[in-house]
Amino acid sequence: MEIGKIVGQVVSTARHSKLPQMTFLLVDIIDVDGNVLAPHQVAVDSIGAGLGEWVLLIRGSSARMAHDTEVPVDLSIVGIVDQITSGRESLYTK
Hints:
Blueprint: E1 2-10, E2 23-30, E3 36-45, E4 54-59, H1 60-65, E5 75-80, E6 83-86, E7 89-93
Parallel strand pairs: 3-5
Antiparallel strand pairs: 1-2, 1-4, 2-3, 4-5, 6-7
């Protein structure tokens, strides 16, 4: 899993038949301090994440399995981060 931050939305009206009614969001892959590691990745969102939120991401075959059917995707949003802690130190709080 990776941590990402929602930075935008991608709109695609013409798409593969196995991608109906899926929302595409633009995410930056980040570290726990919010530093961008990989900018501008497109992820499928099925949980309703919003702009600026930190999210949990999965890639590859796991990203396809996160949906009810086999879909041609390689990055999926599977959670919205509420808090990140290490020991007693809070690294991120929503």
